[in-house]
Specification:
CATH topology: Arc Repressor Mutant, subunit A
Number of domains: 1
Helix content: 40-55%
Strand order of the largest sheet: 1-3-2
CATH class: Mainly Alpha
Number of strands: 3
Shape: elongated
CATH superfamily: Winged helix-like DNA-binding domain superfamily/Winged helix DNA-binding domain
CATH architecture: Orthogonal Bundle
Structural class: alpha+beta
Distance between the termini: 44 Å
Length: 114
């Protein structure tokens, strides 16, 4: 009896129809992985979810999520480093907004699927 995947049944590329030559550049793949890592945390998803409805200051986000301001700031710093959120200062307050439309849509779609 032959085992599945034995060398006599090995798949050869020449045995398949061409499926296209598009392969994303390594930099694009690394960027996608970094975005998914940044969005792969419940607390960061919660922050992005809050920002879907508009800009928020760190204090508001901390209050809305019942999370210490230092933790919220740390999470926002990571999201900002990945280009998912942007910030602007107004007096003593720093307001965050979504900067990446694609990431916003991914989060919105993922939340709607649940």
């Amino acid at each position: 009896m032959k085992r599945r995947g034995s060398s006599s049944e090995a798949c050869a590329p020449s045995g398949h129809a061409a499926v296209g030559d598009h392969v994303a550049p390594q930099r694009a793949v690394e960027r996608a992985a970094a975005l998914f890592r940044a969005l792969g945390d419940v607390s960061r998803i919660r922050l992005v979810e809050r920002l879907l409805s508009g800009d928020r200051c760190v204090g508001d986000l901390a209050s809305e999520t019942a999370t210490p301001m230092s933790t919220v700031s740390q999470q926002l710093r990571l999201l900002r480093a990945e280009g998912i959120v942007s910030r602007r200062r107004v007096g003593k307050h720093i307001y965050y907004a979504l900067a990446d439309d694609a990431a916003s849509e991914w989060v919105r779609a993922a939340l709607e699927r649940s």
